[in-house]
C-alpha cells in the first residue's frame, strides 16, 4: 500500500514541520517514506507545501499527480491542491481561515477550525498539529501512537517545554475530526 499526502498553507503555519513529523512517524513504523518540501523565498508568510509519500514497499517515484489526502490551511492552498485529491480521498480544511468550499462532492471534506483550536491550546503555531491530528483520525496513514512518538523525538529533543502543547494540539485535531 502507498499513500500520498500534501500539506499546504502559509509559511509560519508549521507546514514543513507537520510533514516532517508524518515522515518520521512512518519511518519509525519501518515504512518507506519520501518527504518533499516546497516553499517560496519569502518562507514566513509566503506559500509553503510539502508532499509525504508513505509505502510498504520502495517508492517508485516522487512525482504524484493525484494525492490520497490534502491538508489545506489557507484559501490559495484550497484552490491549488483540492483538485489534486483523488476521488474518494480526504481533504482537511482549516475552517478558521478558509470559508470557501472545495466544490468536491467526491471527496471526504473535513472542515476543522485548526487556527481556533491551536489558539485555544495556547499557541497559534500549533495549527499544523491540529490539522495532522484530523488527518490521522480520518485516514490513518500511520498510527496516532507513531505520530505522538515522532513528536516526542523531534520536539522533545529541541524544545521539550512545548512538547505537551504539541501533543495536546494533535489530540484536539483528532477529536475535532
Strand and helix layout:
Blueprint: E1 2-10, H1 15-28, E2 32-39, E3 47-55, E4 67-72, H2 75-81, E5 85-94, E6 108-112, H3 114-120, H4 127-138, H5 144-158, H6 163-176
Parallel strand pairs: 1-4, 4-5, 5-6
Antiparallel strand pairs: 1-3, 2-3
Would you kindly provide a written description of the structure presented here, covering whatever features stand out?
The protein has helices spanning 15-28, 75-81, 114-120, 127-138, 144-158, 163-176; strands spanning 2-10, 32-39, 47-55, 67-72, 85-94, 108-112. The mean pLDDT is 93. Strands 2-3-1-4-5-6 form a 6-stranded mixed sheet, with helices on both faces. Helix 5 (144-158) packs antiparallel against helix 6 (163-176). It is an alpha/beta fold and 177 residues long. The protein is built from 6 helices and 6 strands; from the N terminus they run E-H-E-E-E-H-E-E-H-H-H-H. The protein has one domain (2-176): Pyruvate-ferredoxin Oxidoreductase, domain 3, CATH 3.40.920.10. It is globular, with a radius of gyration of 15 Å.
Going by CATH, the architecture would be: 3-Layer(aba) Sandwich
Backbone structural class: alpha/beta
| Helix content estimate | 25-40%
Total number of helices: 6
Largest sheet: 6 strands, mixed
The coarse silhouette is globular
Q: Taking all residues together, what is the mean pLDDT? A: 93
Beta-strand content estimate? 25-35%
Counted up, domains total 1
Rg, alpha carbons: 15 Å
| Uncertain segments | none
Question: CATH H-level name... which superfamily?
Answer: Pyruvate-ferredoxin oxidoreductase, PFOR, domain III
* CATH class placement: Alpha Beta
Q: How do the strands line up in the largest sheet?
A: 2-3-1-4-5-6
Question: Which H/E pattern describes the elements?
Answer: EHEEEHEEHHHH
- Provide the CATH topology: Pyruvate-ferredoxin Oxidoreductase, domain 3
Distance between the termini: 24 Å
Number of strand elements: 6
